[in-house]
Design a protein that fits this description.
Length: 110
């Protein structure tokens, strides 16, 4: 597995929401806790850290997520990202802006 670059200080966790509404918050917490345990010197940001407001349009959430993403050094994409419109936008944005890009298995699989 890859080791996260030591220059990474802040990393956005890109995780699918649509279709995962019942488990989304718990999934965010679980993934963040696992990453923090392995990489304690990195500030990990999940979408629930960005906003917990409910019943807003998708554009609101995407805008907030992209704003936080662009303040990061890296993005880590969680399982299911490739079928999530929001995760694909976040991953592409990270690529366009030259952020380091990881997949969750690269960072957590021993």
């Amino acid at each position: 597995f890859k080791i996260m670059d030591t220059n990474i200080k802040k990393c956005f966790i890109s995780i699918p929401v649509t279709g995962h509404e019942d488990t989304y918050v718990d999934d965010c917490i679980k993934v963040k806790d696992q990453l923090v345990e392995r990489y304690p010197n990195v500030d990990f940001i999940t979408p629930i850290d960005v906003t917990m407001e409910l019943d807003r349009p998708t554009s609101f959430y995407m805008g907030k997520d992209i704003e936080q993403l662009l303040d990061c050094d890296a993005i880590v994409s969680v399982h299911g990202w490739e079928t999530s419109k929001g995760c694909k936008v976040e991953r592409y944005t990270a690529e366009v802006y030259g952020l380091t890009r990881y997949f969750i298995d690269e960072l957590l699989t021993p």
